[in-house]
Structures are given as C-alpha cells and as structure tokens.
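User: Here's a chain of 123 residues. Predict its fold as tokens.
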Amino acid sequence: MKRNDLILGVSVLLIGLLLFGFYLLQQSRSFENKRAEIFYRGELVASFRLGPESYADFSFEGRLGLIVVQIREYQVRVVEETSPRNLCSRQGFIQRVGEIIVCLPNEVFVRISGNLTNEIIVG
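Assistant: Prediction complete.
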C-alpha cells in the first residue's frame, strides 16, 4: 500500500464520518417539529405533536368500521382497523417526516409532517 492510497482512504473515511454526523444532527433537529396527521376522505380529522411525552390513542369510524391510531413518542401506527387484509395495521410504526400509512378500503391515511403548531385539532 502506497502513502497516497493511505491518505485517500483516511480522507474518504473522514468525509464519511463528517456527513454522518451532519445527518444525525439534522435528524435530531427534525424531532422538534414533527406532527402526526390523520386524514379521512381527504379531510384532516386529527393532528398530534410528536415528542418525548406524546402518548395517545385516537379512534374514529372509517368507511368500513373502527380505526385506532396509536401515538408513541416520535412514532405513529394504525393499531386496529377493519379492512379485508388489515394492511394498514401490519405496516407498523412510522417516524420520519414524509412517511405515510395508507388504508384505501377505509379512505384513511396517516402521515408525519414537519409543521409545528401547539394545538391538537380534532374535528
């Protein structure tokens, strides 16, 4: 191994570590403004701020029956729903801004957004 190969390898490693650190910093900042938004037939029915003490279970009637959405800290999932294959509840938790749980038979989708307001909207 030549000296230049060693310098190149160390440089690539340092750049990779620097980029990874920047990524982690951005992820920690994105936790500050995350919201779980629940839509039924295209209308916003609930919005919850996600944070270290965010614990809630929200239930409502979808097109085919009861839907239960669970909020746990920085994550959200559909726990229970009535649909032919139960694909919505099988998706598990989502936690990144932009991720979506779609339940077409019930005309429901749940997404994580980056908007920050302090109130919980139910209606």
